[in-house]
Amino acid sequence: SHFTSPIRRYPDLIAHRLIKSVLYGKYSNMQMEEDEIASATTWLSACEQRSTKAERKVISIKKARFIKRFEGEEFVGMVSSVAKFGVFVLLRQYDVDGLVKIERLGNDRFEYDEENLVLRGRKTGLSYGIGDELKVRVVSADVETGKVDFELAEMPQPKEIEDEDDPGTDEFGDPIRKGRSKRGSSKDGGKKEKRDKKHAKGRRESQPEKRGKTENDRRGVRKERVSKRRGKN
Fold first, then answer.
1. What average pLDDT does range 121-129 have in this prediction?
2. If I label 36, which of 12, 14, 53, 67 is the partner at 20 to 30 A Cα–Cα?
3. Pairing status of strand 110-113 against strand 118-121
């Protein structure tokens, strides 16, 4: 039996009758055929869905009647749902939600990310997701259909995205400008510095050979001078 059987819905009553018909012989007349049970469950499920929709409709109409008095006023709300056609914003102060249509989200072309439930703009980088806080204005409230429309009273700022190539900070804790190395030099300056180091290394490697050659020449000159002196003597 279902755990909601104490509610005494008609499907629960059917289950109770079937259990009694098995346990007690005097209730054997309550038995039902499989096709009867199948048709009953289909019909009762449709009735339950219809009653749930009616309940939600009444609640939305009551909320629309209430919020209509605040048309033109601004509130801070939270994105409660995201769809292809816009975002639903919940005013937690009054437990009323309304739709901000996609054309009112900004001068951009928004793409719907179904996996992450996010609307993201191509040009501006603006994104709207569940839990985002928005300042909205009540545009209209239809008391017959229960639909409430909002618009943005304040355009949100694009969310900052971490840059993987962020150079970080220098030794003094100051942020390094993009295009500069941690030592504060530009990219071109860094390349120049590498070239200078390479040339300096080449000069250092070639210097011992030049010094050795000079020393040999000096020794040869000294030998010539000594030999000339000995010849004179």
1. 89
2. 53
3. antiparallel
SS3 call for 166: coil
- The C-alpha atoms of residue 51 and residue 11 are separated, in whole angstroms, by 15
How high is the pLDDT of residue 1?
A: 62
pTM above threshold 0.85: no
Residue 90 near residue 78 (C-beta atoms within 8 A): yes
If one counts every other C-beta atom within 10 angstroms of the C-beta of residue 82, the result is 21
User: Which residues are CB-contacts of 40 (< 8 A; sequence separation ≥ 6)?
Assistant: 11, 14, 32
The number of residues making up the chain comes to: 233
Is the per-residue pLDDT at 180 higher than 50? no
Q: Residue 217 and residue 225: Cα distance in Å, rounded? A: 13
- pLDDT tier for residue 183 given thresholds of 50, 70 and 90: very low
pLDDT score for 85: 93
Residue 63 contacts residue 96 (beta carbons within 8 Å): yes
Q: Which helix (H) or strand (E) holds 66?
A: helix 34-67
Question: d(Cα 148, Cα 170) in Å, to the nearest integer?
Answer: 52
